[in-house]
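hey m, so remember when u said the tokens were messed up on ur end? i reran from scratch. heres the input so u can diff it against urs
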Amino acid sequence: MSVRVAGWSGPRNISTAMMRAWESRPDCRVVDEPFYGCYLLESGAQHPMREAIIRSQPQSREDVQAQLRLSEGCSLQYEKHMTHHMPRGVDLSWTVEAKHVFLIRSPARIIASYRQKMPTVSEEDIGIVRQRELFDEVSDILGERPPVMDSADVLANPEHMLQKLCHTLGIEWIEGAMTKWAPGSRASDGVWAPHWYAAVEASTGFAAPAVEVPALDPADEALACQMQAHYEAMAAFKLI
């Protein structure tokens, strides 16, 4: 039976490493942020490589949804989705076709990592509020809560957490297949990879968990505090 797994994350949240983990399986193809181009067109957001991203992908949500449907002979597909690419009111009826996992991370760590790449950060940029909304919306569509994974738990014990996720999703666990990979870029990477993926391209597995809590300036600290309740609401459902 063909299976689609939609992985929902905000930016700077080991989502690309998670994509690498799934692509390391011999039975899985991956799709990198398929709604990015649509989001840029609709929002007018000025992201690095904006025009190249728009040209690289279907420019309507209907065409993206059609492209995501599994091609013949593909038994497992992992889709890396950014929550801020799915604005409020967008059609989510297609989500019933997939299994889902929501990847969360401490707001302070997300903001600190985002600011290493971008000069400013906003609530919309990091997508935590929208992630919680999507968690509720997808739960309503499916009639059950999809699994949640905290990136800190994945980094602390990737094999245990990924095995737990596969079991929860009803997907065969392949020993050793999802925790190590060869360094370098992938043909499946989005065209934005040169700006964002340097760390994961140098990696051969999940990084060691961070110990120190990042220092934030007052405005970023205030944003992290505002986002904490949304993070904790999803964390209540996380796999352990």
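this time it looks ok to me. The first strand starts at residue 3 and ends at 9. if urs says something different then somethings off w ur setup not the seq
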